[in-house]
Amino acid sequence: MKHLTCTKCNLDLPEDQFHRDSSKESGRKSYCKECAREYNRQWREHNKEKHKAMINHWRETHREEYREQQRKWREDNPDYVPETDENLYDWDGDNVRCRSCGEYRHKSLFYFYGPNKRYIQMPCKICRKGE
Ligand SMILES: [Zn+2]
Ligand SMILES: [Zn+2]
Predict the structure, then answer these.
(1) Domain residue spans of the chain
(2) For 30-60, what is the HEC assignment?
(3) How far is the CA of 3 from the centre of ligand 1 (A)?
(4) I want to staple 13 with a disulfide (CB 3.0 to 4.6 A). Which of 17, 49, 73, 101 is the partner?
């Protein structure tokens, strides 16, 4: 069998250790199967990192956007007090009683929703985290 020299590892290997490549004069790749495998592995690793970086970047920019929206909204609503129905929730000053843990927690520990953020989503954020 014909031997070829791999351009990557410089080993003199039998022809069948090289992938076929009809575009090459020799009819084989210039590097051996082992080097091709390594090359592919590195390529995947590299692209995995690139992909991860892209996702992280997207999250970062999205988070900024989100933060900015929140900031603007607070600016436009400086006196914002959630218009929740007194009868729907147990209030103690700025604290609301969580229906799950029974604790009075500051309103910032709840999500508000509905028209004029009228409703409080139960349970509190702390209970949600524990889910
Ligand atoms: Zn090689
Ligand atoms: Zn709770």
Answers:
(1) 3-76, 91-129
(2) EEEHHHHHHHHHHHHHHHHHHHHHHHHHHHH
(3) 12
(4) 17
